Amino acid sequence: MKKDKRENGYMIGQNKKKAGQRAMAAVLTAVVTAVFIMGGALFGIDNTMYVKADGRPVAIQSCTISGSNVVCQLSAGSVPSSDDGKYYIYADEVYQDGTAGKVVATVDAGASATAVFPLNYNSADSNLSRKFLVAVKRGGQMVQVSNEHYITNPEAIATHTSARRDTGIKGILPDLTKCSNGELQDLGIQQVVYNIDMDEICVDETVAGAIPFNYNGQTYYFNGGRINSFDSMIKSFNSYGIQVTLVLLNGGQSPYAQDLVHPAARGGDCPGYALNVADAAGTNHLKAIGAFLAQRYSGQMGCGQVDNWIVGNEVNARTSWWYTNSTSLDYNVNIYAKAFRIIYNEMKSQNANVRIYNSIDQEWNRKSNPGSFLAKAYLDQFNYYMLREGNIDWGLSFHPYNSPLYDPYAWNGPAVWVGSGITTPYITMQNIDILINYMHQSQFLSPSGQVRSISLAEIGYTSSFGNEKQEASIAYGYLKAASLPDVDSFMLFRQTDDAHEMESHLAMGLYDLNGNKKPSYNIYKNLGTANEAVAKARASEIIGMDIDQMISQNIVWTRSGTGVVQ
After folding, report:
1. Residues in contact with 557: Cβ distance below 8 Å, sequence separation at least 6, in sequence order
2. What is the average pLDDT across 356-362?
3. How many Cβ atoms are within 10 Å of 423's Cβ, its own excluded?
4. What is the pLDDT of residue 562?
């Protein structure tokens, strides 16, 4: 959902441009289109998918941690010519290209080869989040002859691993003023989602109470007051038996974290900025933040446990949440993929059981904001980079809001926006099966061959056009999500209405502004419990059809026009 401000860690909403004002964007027909556009092809090796770039005869099939070393397996359809018959393995930082990094190993060139070199974990020369490539010496010059590849099993060195707190999908964006009086427990909440601005937790040694963190040969400092507040909040949620998901944002405002703002994002006016993976300062700072947060909230440090981390919010919405000044899809995805890799490797190297998610919105094949990218195109390109540079177990965070956002009918959307096939303009809870089926394709599977974790980390329905519609919509959305085995969370947006959002008819809370519970409170309370039949009966009465039948038979109602039917 597009937002224009944040308060106390909450996502503050703004209505998207009215549906129908812009023509439908051209549709990408399949993920393989993106692959071939980039000049690559898909290969399966030992049940692993990867992409080999054209014109480079050597493939890095894997880069994995083994003990204190990194082991890279190489293959070549034809051994490239060279001055000395050697392969040189380079370790590049994410902001380096080609043979700009350090040679970490040299092996005899051949159709197959194995390169082994030190991981150097938690040192100034750490290879944990670097990318590797193969070069040969030709005419006295180093020539790159392979694709780039990252380490794909950072969890192999994790020393702060905790069992996950998976108990169910029923979640919410909490109102912290209502968290200490038992209302989350009364609702039967099993998960919460909350924002953390990375720039706001960063300080320097001059700030009173700063928490030092020594990592990769440098000392970084974190805001003791902010971190202690997160400690208290997370431990409270844990004590209630609630699983925690944190969304990593980059507000770009702190003077102590300007190095986190990508050069292409500086000077922008946006609530969220692309993370800086263009130089050493930003890249090193990001590594430390990932390691610090994952270690502190591993459940092993007495500070609470976070099981899920989402990197950015709706990152395909360039001018809203992942700003750069470039309109190039590939440029923006490339930046995001590098930042994602760093956070993934740093966090998984602390706690092997955390899940790391990307984040896209529901604008699958139509964008309401010309500054955004299509969600499908962004997902395809992101997956391309993940395959090309080493498949990892990333998860998908998706926001299947109605279109338009203020439409109150989760079960009966406008036919012009809610289609039944892959070309649908938007993906909402009505046609969420399109996304699920898409993620079942072989090229989207995890390294173990499984469908990736899918988190519906932000979803909500307005009561501005009647409480009954909100009741039935929440029931429909939750029950549809619960019927899908691949969906691991349903995060209702939000616990309490927000006055600013209500200016756009977005009264999405279970409480009104006066603190009164809406009828939707009781229906959400009953869902997923022994009293679920009561919620189903109420929703069926409002909808005019048995909701179990509607969901089990995947009956999709749509209506003409885009206006709200009273």
Report:
1. 411, 412
2. 98
3. 15
4. 73
